[in-house]
């Protein structure tokens, strides 16, 4: 071990000052491995890296490989050789190439008995050298390597002095041949050189392939040699060597599948060989391999029967690789159709492996994508040909549906309870994959598939013995739901029967009940077209709503029904509201499900007669408002806080969907007015908000400094504004006054975001403009004060403030004519916001400027500010592009520069000239000529946004010294 190495003579000395001697390298290695002080380890690491890059490394690396050195030292010597050859090749005179090659070969032979890590590193070094010399200088590298590793006669001249161990030599040669393609793939090569090298290496396969076959077939070859042969073949396969030339070798690999020591490696090699996309060109080779794959079926069945997961997994991989990669080619071999059908059935057997995934088998999931591929290939044929294939394969796909439904079965409740949470999650994902496959298969099998499922479900539910097995019923419903979730089943004639069967299902089992709920949810659109069928369904959903264990499925299903069927729910409204109020008061559901439930009730209430809504709304929210009132009077503490946020969240969710103006049957949710008996009647949501307004003010006064509570309160109003739009009008005056007060007392981003919504909706309405103008002046003044004190700790406020003013400039720019708005300070806040490290804040600031700059011509006040501070803005943008901000933001800065160029080109030209002539600005990496080129390119482009982005991006790369590093491609 390295612990036997001599410690440094003076451990305190920094190796940076040391000479590049073998002794000092060993001391630095000791320090790297064993010094407990991390700083000294780092210093040693840096020194050793520099040592490898030095010219002396060509010499000291051989000394480090001496037989008396420790393996770790020898490994560093071999790694240094590889570093020199791969990164410093041009430093070595060409007349030394032959001697280096001979030395490397000699050392590889010396290390053929180990240590393995040193041998591998030396092989990689020789492979790297070969890649530097092929094909011009070293035209037959493989033949030369093979010759060098032939057993040498002791008296032959020039024979390397090495231990005469034929097996060790053979393994060393195979290691060398294995790393040669690997080094090609890992090296950084120009495209033309890569293509040239690949061609030369593929040419060498004619020498490698017979050698590998000979070794694999030889009785004298040990398992170790055979495994190395298999790995070597895998490595060369990545070069896309022609399957036509190597299919006999691939066939030989199948013999390894009967040898337990070689099984895993043989599987990997065969899969790699037949998964080559290029191998589709060698149809005869594929046809010859088919009997070998099919010949594994008996071994596969035995493994599945014995629970040998490793063997069944490996054979499954081979079958799937053959079937999936070459599906179309093999389908087209009409004379071999029975063989391919046999392969498809073999894969079907793999899909149906006995046992539950992922506990007692892990292979069936490998097969699912095969069924997509086969179906796509069959359906891609012209109609006549397709009909023939469908005749053969439709029955297989019906079998597949049976297999998939069986595989989706839950285990018994006792067994499922014993599974780990990880196993349960994997099983959930597996069922999602099965669901996706069933949905895809529907394209081939069509309506007949639904009829098939319906008939089986009917037989099960009518037979008391069959219906006792809940997993069977659950699996069939799971199949229905998988299809109905994404396919339009409105035309299907079996859905009415299915809806009729569902109430017959006993939902005492949680997993079955869950699937029943999701199945009903997937049929919500069908129910909207057939409301007469809801009578048997709604009670089941409400029954589920009362069970905590069905929380997610029952609430999401009720929400879907309320959204899709709201026009026809009046007869059930009272039952839905009563049950919902009950579960909400009893706190049966978690917070997120309560939010969904309130959204569902918002949809339900929206469709009721307007005169009924307020009364039902009051009865729904009164218990929660009373609870909120009680909490508001108590002293703040963490428990109260969560309860307050929860209740406010429920109100927000309700007001998100409670929209009496939404046209009931509009699938896109477009707003259109609904005639009401009294046009002057206030919106029920506004009435409620006015009633609870004092309560909300009380909450604010107690929780003013808590951003979570303030955000939750603002959320109630923001959701209401978004949903009600102009109906929210009566609240604008009260809300504006309250927002101004709370923001002045304790600035919060959520208050600015709410103000932006109010500006967006009401800035164009004369009777609201005074309140909004007053609010904006108050918010702006308070935020400017905050900026003056130092805004760095409030990136969220800076972001929301920039968004607010961008909205004002968009909707009501004449607010900027107010004497109360300090436009100059606002402009400066925008410049400060551009300097923030937070991406969102910078983007908001660039949006503010792209809205402001076009207004400067028409609004003299803005024009004056631009004249005075435009140079500072330009300078800030250039600093950001030049390296002060992340590169990813350069396109946002380019939009401001484009806007400047469009709206004040003469001024921009002057500002660019003045700022860029400063030496070292915006970066010492760019020359005066490069800055001039950038300025000219930028000023020429006033229309094409994409072109400006590219110009700014290239300049940004230049400033950062990254030009030509590949970044410009991304």
Which terms would index this structure?
970 residues; mainly alpha; 70% helix; 0% strand; flat; disordered C terminus
Please tell me about this protein's structure.
This protein is flat. The protein has 46 helices and no strands. The protein is mainly α and 970 residues long. The longest helix has 27 residues, at 191-217. Residues 9-16, 154-162, 663-679 and 964-970 have low confidence and may be disordered.
> What spatial form do the alpha-carbon principal axes imply?
flat
Mean pLDDT: 88
Task: List how many beta strands DSSP finds.
Answer: 0
Write down the Rg: 38 Å
Short overview:
With 970 residues, the protein is mostly helical. Helix 10 runs parallel beside helix 12 and helix 35 runs parallel beside helix 37. The two termini are 46 Å apart.
Please describe the topology of this protein.
Layout: H1 22-34, H2 38-53, H3 57-64, H4 71-87, H5 97-110, H6 116-133, H7 141-148, H8 166-186, H9 191-217, H10 223-237, H11 243-253, H12 263-274, H13 283-294, H14 297-306, H15 309-325, H16 327-331, H17 337-351, H18 368-379, H19 383-407, H20 413-418, H21 421-445, H22 447-462, H23 464-467, H24 470-484, H25 495-501, H26 510-522, H27 524-529, H28 538-545, H29 551-565, H30 573-585, H31 591-606, H32 610-633, H33 638-657, H34 684-703, H35 707-724, H36 732-745, H37 749-762, H38 766-789, H39 795-811, H40 823-834, H41 839-852, H42 860-884, H43 890-903, H44 905-916, H45 928-940, H46 945-959
Helix pairs in contact: 1-2, 3-4, 4-6, 5-6, 6-8, 8-10, 9-10, 9-11, 10-12, 11-13, 12-15, 13-15, 13-17, 14-15, 15-17, 17-19, 18-21, 19-21, 21-24, 22-24, 22-25, 24-26, 26-29, 28-29, 29-31, 30-31, 31-33, 32-33, 32-34, 33-35, 34-35, 35-37, 36-37, 36-38, 37-38, 37-39, 39-41, 40-41, 40-42, 41-43, ...
């Amino acid at each position: 071990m390295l612990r036997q190495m001599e410690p440094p003579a003076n451990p305190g000395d920094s190796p940076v000052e040391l000479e590049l001697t073998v002794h000092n390298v060993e001391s630095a290695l000791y320090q790297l491995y064993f010094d407990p002080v991390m700083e000294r380890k780092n210093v040693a690491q840096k020194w050793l890296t520099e040592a490898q890059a030095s010219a002396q490394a060509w010499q000291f690396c051989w000394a480090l490989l001496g037989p008396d050195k420790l393996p770790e030292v020898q490994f560093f010597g071999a790694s240094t050789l590889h570093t020199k050859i791969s990164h410093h090749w041009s430093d070595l005179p060409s007349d030394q190439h032959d001697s280096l090659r001979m030395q490397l070969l000699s050392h590889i032979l010396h290390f053929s008995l180990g240590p393995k890590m040193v041998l591998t590193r030396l092989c990689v070094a020789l492979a790297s050298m070969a890649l530097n010399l092929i094909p011009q200088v070293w035209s037959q590298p493989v033949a030369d390597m093979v010759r060098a590793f032939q057993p040498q006669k002791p008296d032959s001249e020039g024979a390397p002095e090495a231990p005469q161990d034929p097996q060790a030599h053979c393994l060393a040669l195979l290691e060398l041949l294995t790393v040669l393609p690997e080094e090609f793939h890992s090296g950084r090569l120009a495209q033309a050189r890569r293509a040239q090298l690949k061609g030369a290496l593929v040419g060498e396969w004619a020498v490698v392939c017979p050698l590998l076959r000979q070794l694999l077939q030889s009785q004298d070859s040990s398992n170790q040699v055979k495994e190395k042969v298999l790995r070597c073949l895998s490595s060369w396969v990545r070069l896309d060597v022609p399957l036509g030339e190597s299919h006999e070798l691939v066939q030989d690999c199948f013999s390894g599948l009967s040898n337990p020591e070689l099984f895993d490696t043989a599987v990997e090699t065969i899969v790699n060989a037949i998964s080559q996309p290029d191998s589709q060109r060698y149809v005869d080779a594929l046809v010859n391999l088919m009997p070998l794959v099919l010949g594994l079926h008996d071994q596969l069945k035995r493994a599945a029967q014995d629970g040998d997961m490793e063997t069944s997994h490996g054979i499954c991989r081979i079958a799937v690789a053959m079937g999936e990669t070459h599906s179309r080619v093999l389908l087209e071999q009409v004379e071999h159709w029975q063989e391919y059908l046999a392969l498809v059935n073999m894969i079907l057997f793999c899909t149906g492996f006995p046992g539950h995934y992922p506990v007692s088998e892990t292979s069936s999931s490998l097969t699912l994508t095969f069924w997509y591929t086969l179906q796509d290939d069959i359906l891609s044929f012209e109609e006549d040909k397709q009909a023939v294939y469908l005749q053969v394969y439709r029955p297989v796909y019906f079998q597949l549906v049976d297999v998939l439904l069986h595989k989706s079965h839950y285990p018994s409740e006792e067994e499922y309870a014993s599974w780990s949470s990880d196993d349960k999650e994997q099983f959930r994902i597996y069922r999602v994959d099965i669901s996706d496959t069933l949905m895809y298969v529907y394209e081939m099998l069509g309506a007949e598939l639904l009829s098939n499922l319906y008939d089986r479900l009917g037989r099960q539910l009518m037979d008391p013995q069959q219906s006792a097995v809940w997993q069977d019923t659950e699996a069939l419903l799971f199949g229905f739901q998988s299809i109905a979730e994404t396919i339009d089943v409105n035309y299907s004639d079996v859905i009415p029967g299915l809806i009729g069967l569902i109430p017959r299902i006993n939902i005492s089992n949680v997993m079955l009940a869950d699937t029943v709920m999701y199945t009903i949810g997937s049929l919500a659109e069908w129910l909207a077209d057939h409301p007469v069928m809801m009578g048997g369904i709604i009670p089941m959903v409400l029954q589920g709503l009362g069970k905590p264990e069905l929380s997610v499925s029952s609430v999401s299903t009720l929400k879907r029904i309320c959204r899709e069927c709201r026009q026809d729910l009046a007869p059930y409204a009272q039952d839905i509201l009563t049950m919902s109020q009950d579960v909400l008061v009893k706190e049966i559901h978690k917070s997120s499900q309560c939010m969904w439930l309130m959204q569902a009730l918002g949809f339900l209430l929206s469709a009721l007669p307007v005169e009924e809504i307020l009364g039902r709304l009051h009865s729904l929210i009164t218990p929660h408002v009373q609870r909120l009132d009680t909490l508001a009077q108590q002293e703040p503490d963490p428990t109260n806080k969560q309860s307050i946020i929860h209740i406010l969240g429920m109100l927000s969710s309700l007001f998100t969907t409670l929209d009496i103006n939404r046209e009931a049957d509009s699938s896109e949710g477009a707003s259109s007015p609904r005639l009401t008996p009294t046009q002057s009647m206030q919106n029920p949501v506004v009435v409620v908000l006015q009633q609870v307004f004092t309560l909300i003010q009380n909450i604010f006064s107690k929780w003013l400094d808590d951003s979570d509570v303030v955000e939750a309160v603002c959320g109630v109003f923001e959701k209401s504004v978004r949903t009600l739009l102009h109906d929210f009008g009566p609240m604008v005056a009260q809300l504006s006054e309250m927002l101004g007060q709370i923001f002045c007392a304790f600035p919060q981003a959520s208050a600015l975001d709410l103000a932006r919504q109010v500006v967006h909706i009401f800035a164009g309405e004369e009777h609201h403009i005074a309140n909004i103008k007053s609010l904006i002046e108050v918010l702006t003044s308070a935020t400017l004060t905050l900026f003056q004190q130092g805004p760095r700790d409030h990136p969220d406020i800076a972001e929301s403030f920039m968004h607010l003013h961008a909205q004002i400039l968009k909707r009501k720019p004449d607010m900027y004519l107010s004497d109360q708005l300090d436009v100059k300070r606002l402009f400066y806040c925008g410049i400060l916001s551009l300097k923030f490290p937070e991406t969102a804040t910078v983007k908001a600031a660039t949006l503010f400027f792209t809205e402001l700059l076009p207004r400067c011509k028409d609004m003299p006040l803005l024009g004056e500010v631009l004249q005075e501070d435009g140079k500072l803005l330009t300078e800030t943008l250039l600093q950001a592009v030049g390296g002060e901000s992340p590169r990813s933001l350069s396109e946002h800065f380019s939009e401001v520069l484009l806007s400047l160029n469009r709206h004040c080109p003469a001024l921009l030209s002057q500002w660019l000239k003045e700022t860029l002539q400063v030496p070292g600005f915006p970066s010492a990496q760019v020359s005066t000529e490069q800055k001039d080129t950038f300025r000219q390119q930028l000023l020429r482009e006033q229309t094409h946004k994409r072109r400006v982005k590219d110009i700014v991006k290239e300049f940004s790369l230049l400033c950062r010294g990254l030009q030509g590093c590949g970044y410009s491609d991304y």
